[in-house]
TrEMBL record:
<dbReference type="GO" id="GO:0016887">
    <property type="term" value="F:ATP hydrolysis activity"/>
</dbReference>
<feature type="domain" description="ABC transporter">
    <location>
        <begin position="5"/>
        <end position="264"/>
    </location>
</feature>
<protein>
    <submittedName>
        <fullName>ATP-binding cassette domain-containing protein</fullName>
    </submittedName>
</protein>
<dbReference type="Pfam" id="PF08352">
    <property type="entry name" value="oligo_HPY"/>
</dbReference>
<dbReference type="Pfam" id="PF00005">
    <property type="entry name" value="ABC_tran"/>
</dbReference>
<keyword id="KW-0813">Transport</keyword>
<keyword id="KW-0067">ATP-binding</keyword>
<dbReference type="InterPro" id="IPR003593">
    <property type="entry name" value="AAA+_ATPase"/>
</dbReference>
<keyword id="KW-0547">Nucleotide-binding</keyword>
<dbReference type="GO" id="GO:0005886">
    <property type="term" value="C:plasma membrane"/>
</dbReference>
<comment type="similarity">
    <text>Belongs to the ABC transporter superfamily.</text>
</comment>
<dbReference type="InterPro" id="IPR050319">
    <property type="entry name" value="ABC_transp_ATP-bind"/>
</dbReference>
<dbReference type="InterPro" id="IPR013563">
    <property type="entry name" value="Oligopep_ABC_C"/>
</dbReference>
<dbReference type="GO" id="GO:0055085">
    <property type="term" value="P:transmembrane transport"/>
</dbReference>
<dbReference type="InterPro" id="IPR017871">
    <property type="entry name" value="ABC_transporter-like_CS"/>
</dbReference>
<dbReference type="InterPro" id="IPR003439">
    <property type="entry name" value="ABC_transporter-like_ATP-bd"/>
</dbReference>
<dbReference type="GO" id="GO:0015833">
    <property type="term" value="P:peptide transport"/>
</dbReference>
Length: 330
């Protein structure tokens, strides 16, 4: 499949300020803890037209940062994010000056960014009117059609944010993104706050939209079970790096990375045979001081000395499948 959106070896570091306590302790001779986080470390990923790619990993592994780079909201320190071969964001003095409207983002709580006094119809129309994507005269019809697209009654346009349930809010978040007529939507934990039954309904909306509108999705979640229902291909991320990537069915049927195996073992809802893999043990290490070599080695049941010393180079194991592990664990 030809890539519509491609991330090519993108990296992003964040530096935080030292706290007052850290400064005082350093005056007393205590070493300063690291202040720089390598949130995304040379990640390459592509999404084809109308494709759903799931991006999975534990909290803090860099999923949101990667999603924001894909949407042009964050400038990577290195590498590039391209839509149809063109940068998703134009920069001036290292800051985003202009970004494409063709990649939109949906967040876990889309209402956090909404003015509580603004009617939902106004909130949906705000972006497309500002970008000249809708003729002002067609505003009401366009809002109504967008609400209908996500399974909501067009009369909801006149209501205020607080009048909606969690599932409806999630749909309105999707509607705001759809109003921009995107080719790719980055959904960042868009279902995480919802009850399981509501999640299933909103998932159906995603699938329906994909079938009708041919939109590609980068679907970010810590929940492999949810991603398993939706994604064509899946990327597994661990401490800033993609450790496994491939067609979702193939990855779930025969996961090649010990971390993927551990995640699958931990998902009760996946209606798959149990593999007898080791569940992921221990806590995710601090991204401020990640382990040497393969970042996963302290939690890996197969780790040997080489894993502590050498960063695994991603390698192809099958058509369209990649794993970053020194060993063939099959
Ligand atoms: N603006 C920022 N400034 C400083 N550090 C940041 C910033 N944004 C993210 N980070 C750090 O980068 C790392 C990756 O964060 P990110 O939010 O991308 O991970 P995530 O996998 O999406 O986590 P979660 O699921 O908890 O949102 C974390 O250590 C986080 O603390």
């Amino acid at each position: 499949m030809t890539a519509l959106l491609s991330l090519e070896s993108v990296s992003k570091r964040f530096t935080r300020r030292a706290t007052v306590e850290e400064c005082l302790l350093s005056l007393l001779g205590r070493p300063m803890p690291p202040r720089s986080v390598h949130a995304v470390d040379q990640v390459s990923l592509s999404i084809g037209e109308g494709e759903v790619v799931g991006l999975v990993g534990e909290s803090g592994c860099g999923k949101s940062t990667l999603g924001r780079i894909a949407a042009g909201l964050i400038v990577p320190d290195g590498g590039s994010a391209l839509l149809d071969g063109r940068p998703v964001a134009e920069l001036r003095s290292g800051r985003v000056e202009k970004r494409t409207t063709a990649v939109q983002m949906v967040f876990q709580d889309p209402f956090a960014s909404l003015n509580p006094r603004m009617k939902v119809g106004e909130a949906i129309a705000e972006g497309p009117l500002a970008h000249g994507l809708w003729p002002a005269a067609e505003r009401s019809e366009r809002v109504a059609a967008t609400l209908a697209d996500v399974g909501l009654d067009p009369s909801y346009a006149a209501r205020f944010p607080h009048q909606f349930s969690g599932g409806q809010r999630a749909r309105i978040g999707i509607a705001r993104a759809l109003a921009m007529n995107p080719r790719v939507v980055v959904a960042d934990e868009a279902l995480a706050a919802l009850d399981v039954s509501i999640q299933a309904q909103v998932l159906n909306t995603f699938m329906d939209l994909r079938a009708r509108r041919g939109i590609a999705w980068l679907f970010i979640s810590h929940d492999l079970g949810v991603v398993g229902h939706l994604a064509d291909r899946v990327a597994i991320m661990y401490l800033g790096r993609i450790v496994e990537f491939g067609p979702a069915e193939a990855v779930f049927a025969a996961p090649a990375h010990p971390y993927t195996r551990g995640l699958i073992e931990a998902v009760p809802r996946l209606e798959r045979r149990r593999f007898g893999f080791h569940p992921v043990r221990g806590e995710i290490p601090s991204p401020l001081s990640p382990p040497s070599g393969c970042h996963f080695h302290p939690r890996c049941p197969h780790a040997v000395r080489r894993c502590r010393e050498e960063k695994p180079t991603p390698r192809q194991i099958d058509t369209g499948r990649m794993v970053a592990c020194h060993f063939d664990l099959a």
